[in-house]
Amino acid sequence: MDNISISSTKPKLNFWEIWNMSFGFLGIQFGFALQNANVSRIFDTLGAEKESLPILWLAAPVTGLIVQPIIGYYSDRTWIPKWGRRRPFFAIGAILATIALFIMPNSPSLWIAAGMLWVMDGSINVSMEPFRAFVGDMLPNEQRSKGFAMQAFFIGIGAVIASVLPYVLTNWLGFSNEAPDGQIPDSVKWSFYIGGVAFFSAVMWTVFNTKEYPPDDIEKLKLENSERGVFTGLAESFLGIFKMPKTMVQLAFVQFFSWFALFAMWIYTTPAVTEHVYGTTDTKSALYNEGANWVGIMFGAYNGVAALAAFLLPLLARYFGRKGTHMLALFCGAAGLISIFYVTNPDLLVISMIGVGIAWASILSLPYAMLSSALPSDKMGYYMGVFNFFIVIPQIVAAGILGFIIKNFFNNDTIYALIIGGVSMIVAGLLSLAVTDNDKEKKS
């Protein structure tokens, strides 16, 4: 691939410049948090069987597998005067995702809801993927941990607000939390409407308040684009998995087990908590919907912890190294997931989420900081897109086997999916020690 780099001079940015370039993640995480906390609830309400939940959720990783490397590849090769390289993708994704967030909670049937998940997740990915490369584009290596930490902070804040919206709308503002059979409660619908507005507003803040560096040789960029057709680009995107740098290969294994655990949590926390802690499987009952709302509080709690931990992790990494810090954070996440099995008081579930929040903050920042230090600047978006294979592949694997395992080995007791997730995080933590990290921030 020809070397087409961004501007070689990368001055250090001040706090508010890093703030503005990361602010869009506040909106992006509104979309993902609403999806993670409420899609299983929507599927349950529309009549999904427990063993079919992972398959219905398959839309999310499959769209990521397809969309992210393609967007990464083409965002590397985009330059539009006044709009830049990554920002056009931010804007297009924001528009599409906002529309999808308004439509999703109005799905009249299970299969329409499953289809809308494909559309919604794909649209969110169009905005999200270039944001990872954006940090590599805009910041020198010594500021990248701070840049990814700021993204993790906004991810945490956005997810806290989005996750607790159904609870707040129900208990503070009086929205209905129940609905007739096969319909989505107003508390969930209005959460998605608010999320759509927040998504669009936050992403466009970054679009209009950040200036990107142009490529060093715009004419070379234009020539390369004219010589490569769409299918060439697609082929190169997916063949990138065979050309990964050593550090990227090592991190791929860490990511696999980390995201397997997260997917198990997102799919099964609602049924696990409503059945194991609240003692009900009746999706029309007030008790079930109370438990489902409390899952939103739990998800808000771990994201709130992540927002705070995001700024602590770079400090710890200066002393323990990025890979050592990542291992410790993943162990905290494992303890949090496994502890849910022993909880009988719903209030104590929030304590379990503290460990998950620490792990989540690390998963969102440290692997990307380690990876960006090992990548050439002209292929940052491309390799960040390829790297996301190891976010979506474990989710596809989880979708394929978790339902079978829970049904055939644990008698459909979904709490065991969370224990499996905890064990997976332990494995990820151990594997992180094998990563070769070009860590210039660690104190000797």
Describe, in short, the structure shown.
The chain has 444 residues and is an all-alpha fold.
Keywords:
mainly alpha; globular; disordered N terminus; 18 helices; 444 residues; single chain; Growth Hormone, Chain: A; 0% strand
CATH class: Mainly Alpha
The CATH homology group name: MFS general substrate transporter like domains
Beta content: under 5%
What is the distance, rounded to the nearest whole angstrom, between the alpha carbons of the first and last residues?
A: 37 Å
Kindly identify the CATH topology. Answer: Growth Hormone, Chain: A
Q: Structural class, judged by helices and strands?
A: mainly alpha
What does the average pLDDT come to?
A: 85
Describe the protein's architecture and organization.
The protein has one domain (15-432): Growth Hormone, Chain: A (Up-down Bundle). The model is unreliable at 1-8 (pLDDT under 50). It has helices at 15-22, 24-45, 53-56, 59-76, 87-103, 110-138, 144-171, 186-209, 218-227, 230-239, 246-276, 286-320, 322-339, 349-363, 366-372, 380-387, 389-409, 415-432. Helix content is 73%, strand content 0%.
